[in-house]
Write a structure and sequence with these properties.
mainly alpha; elongated
């Protein structure tokens, strides 16, 4: 599957954006622990597998 199909999936882009914001806040010291990182990763993997 091409990468363009993944870029057209708004839900996947939102999930990846939330993961990026969570990791950025963690590395900047805003969050003491990256809350929901495992949940976001599970949602991203399940969305990618669903799109296949």
């Amino acid at each position: 599957m091409s990468a363009m199909k993944y870029l057209n999936d708004r839900v996947l882009l939102v999930l990846v954006g939330l993961l990026g914001v969570t990791l950025t806040a963690f590395f900047l010291g805003v969050l003491p622990y990256p809350f929901g990182i495992l949940i976001l990763l599970v949602f991203i993997v399940s969305r990618v597998l669903y799109r296949r």
